[in-house]
Every structure is written in C-alpha cells, then in structure tokens.
Write a structure and sequence with these properties.
With 379 residues, this protein is an alpha+beta fold. Helices cover 21% and strands 22% of the residues. It contains five helices and 14 strands. Strands 1, 2, 3, 4, 5, 6 and 9 form a seven-stranded antiparallel beta sheet that branches. A three-stranded antiparallel beta sheet has the order 10-11-14. Keywords: Membrane, Transmembrane, Transmembrane helix.
C-alpha cells in the first residue's frame, strides 16, 4: 500500500470578515431589542397615562354623584311647599339665597332673617364665581377661566352622630334634628341646627330626636402646589372649636374644567306653573293625586347655567331637581409626539384648543336629586 499524499489541514477560526459580519448582526439584534424595550416601555407608560385619565374622570363623577344623591335629605323633615298634606299657603319657602360661608353666629333669625330656612330649602347652588361674599377668602385661589364653576351641596348626614360610620359629636359641631313630637310641631319647632345641643324630641316628646351632622360641601377647581389643576372640596366642620367651612382639600387631580347645569321643576304634572304663593289645588279634589300648582319632580325645559352675570333666581334654586355635570379631565403626564388641538363642548361652552401635549377627555353625568324629586312625585 503506498503512502498517502493527502495534505493535513491545519485548524483555523473565523476570518476577520466573518467576525465583522457576526458583530454587526449582534449589534443589530441588540439595537432591535433595545428599540423593542423602549417602544414597550413607552406603550406601557401611555396606557398607564390613559388609564389614569379615565380613572380620574370616573372617580370625580362618582364622588359628585354620591353627594348630589343625598342633596335635600333632612330625615323626617319635609318642607311645607313639598308636602302634599299641607294645603295652605306654605310658610317656609326660602326668601333668600344663602351665603354658604356666612359665620354661624349670623345664622339665627334675629341676625339674618330666613337664613336657616333657606339652607334647608335650597339644597344645591352653583355659579361661575364665589357663591357669596363671605366665600371670597375660601375661593381666593380658585381658577377663573370659563368652565370652572363652584357647586354647593347640602344635606343631613345619612348616619347618626356617633353611630356607624359617623364620627362622634365634636364640640361646636352643627347637627340637624327633625322633631317628631306633636307639641313641638304645633309650636313651629320642626327642626333645629343648634350646635352642640339636642333640643328636639321623638314621638314620646322625651327621647332626644336623632342628630345628623349638617353636610355642606363646596366644590371648585384650583391649581395644586405642583401646578396641576384639581377638583377641591371644602367641608363644613369645626376648626379651633368654631364651626365653619374648613380649608379646601384636593380630592381628584387633573380636573381642569367643571361646569354645572341645573334642571328646574317649574311646571307641574297638570301643565300649570309652580306657584307657592297660593294654597295647594288638586286637579281632582276627590282623588288628590295631581296638584295643579306644585311641581312633579321632573325638570322642565333646558338645563340652565348660573353665572355671576346671570345668577339663578331664588325661585329657580328652590325647584332644582336634577344636576348635569361636565368635567374636563387632563392626563397625568404629557404624551410624547402628541399635540392637543381639539376643542371640548361643556354643555354649550366650548374650551380649547390647548395646544399642548396633554390628552384630555370630557366626562358628563346627569344626577336626579331623589330626595327632592321623590317628594314631588304623586299619583
């Protein structure tokens, strides 16, 4: 057998060209993965931003709805003008529009005639300016652009002072009582807002009547210390032992505009105009289901907007049975590559474009004031 002349091959690695190609492919893969990571991060941030925007609007509407649904709740007390059993001329129709920030020392009849009666008779107030001269300090930082309304909501707390979720009585706290004692009612003592005392009683005329904290919330828009617009709320409470409107607290960030429209029950089920200046008249006196000159709880005509230039009249505020809310809510962060050139309709008021990078959305709801509307529903 002859000797093999096959040449032995020496081991060899990648050539320089192959190494450069592999390095380039690796760099391209890393760049693609980096871009994918950046795009995913940006997408997640944008989704979080959009979700936060929706959550802000939902939360703001939920808080406002919840408060408005309780508006006009006064336990067993019912105004004469909403009482189907009161056939005479009602004597408790509010004669004025209350200043919600008036000091409690001026509430008594001998200081401000008809003030407490107006507090109970007008459960909702709104305006594009301060709802009273005594609220100027409280609302000094309020945003003044069009579409930044102020909303006032009043009612008795739905739980009793010191029971359930209600806090114990605080010294100086304003509490509402409705009398169920025949002798007290005959004497005209139908309710009490005396702070710290319980003058009224139940049916036995001995047991103190239930005490409910007086709720008066004022909602408005102002900028936070971070420079972001937000929905603020001032509660009626006690500060340094004295009752009054407390310093406003931020409740929902990002709310940039807040417009309030009111639905007025100005016409009854019979088609006649509401008239509290005359005794109750029934369409059919034998059945007594449809009053001719009293409301039916249903808003009539277009919803109205109260402003400093055209304030709502006392007669309109007494008959508010529904509230329509418009909220323009801004996203938490600016969106890269986005320019907001849209306009937004807030119940007849158009705002924008803002020409910035914040996404916005309008949230709206119509809330029936059940405690007022149900009292008027008959038949």
């Amino acid at each position: 057998m002859g000797c093999s002349t096959l040449q032995q091959r020496r081991p060899a690695g990648f050539s320089l060209v192959e190494m450069m190609i592999a390095t380039l492919l690796g760099m391209l893969l890393v760049a693609w993965l980096t871009q994918l990571l950046l795009d995913t991060t940006r997408l997640n941030r944008e989704m979080s931003n959009t979700s936060a925007l929706a959550e802000r609007g939902r939360l703001a509407l939920q808080l406002l709805r919840q408060d408005l649904r309780h508006a006009g709740y006064w336990h067993t007390y019912q105004p004469q003008y909403d009482d189907p059993g009161w056939t005479q001329v009602p004597g408790d129709v509010p004669a004025l529009v209350p200043d919600p920030c008036l000091g409690i020392e001026n509430w008594p009849e001998d200081r401000t005639s008809g003030y407490i009666q107006a507090l109970l008779g007008i459960a909702v107030q709104s305006s594009d300016a301060a709802p009273g001269e005594h609220c100027q300090a409280l609302l000094s930082a309020e945003r003044g652009e069009p579409g930044t309304d102020v909303l006032v909501v009043r009612h008795a707390a739905t739980c009793l002072v010191g029971l359930g979720i209600c806090a114990p009585a605080e010294a100086g706290e304003v509490a509402f009582q409705a009398s169920n004692c025949a002798s007290e009612l005959a004497a005209g003592a139908r309710y009490s807002l005396a702070p710290g005392v319980s003058p009224l009683t139940e049916r036995d005329c001995i047991t103190p009547a239930f005490r409910h904290q007086l709720v008066q919330n004022i909602y408005f828009i102002r900028n936070t210390e971070r420079g972001e617009p937000a929905l603020y709320r001032s509660r009626l409470g006690v500060s340094a032992g004295a009752p009054g409107q407390l310093r406003a607290q931020e409740i929902v960030p990002g709310v940039e505009r807040f417009r309030v429209m009111l639905g007025i029950d100005s016409v009854g089920a019979s088609g006649s105009v509401v008239d509290y200046g005359s005794p109750l008249v029934w369409q059919d006196p034998t059945v007594q289901r449809v009053p001719v000159n009293r409301g039916d709880g249903v808003p009539d005509g277009a919803f109205i907007h109260c402003s400093e230039v055209t304030p709502c009249a006392r007669s309109q505020l007494v008959n508010v049975t529904a509230v329509r809310l418009y909220l323009l809510v801004r996203a938490r962060e600016e969106s890269a590559g986005y320019r907001n050139d849209q306009s937004y309709d807030l119940g007849g008021l158009v705002v924008g474009p803002f020409d910035d990078s914040y996404k916005r959305d309008v949230f709206t709801a119509t809330v029936l004031l059940r405690n007022i509307a149900v009292r008027r529903e008959r038949g």
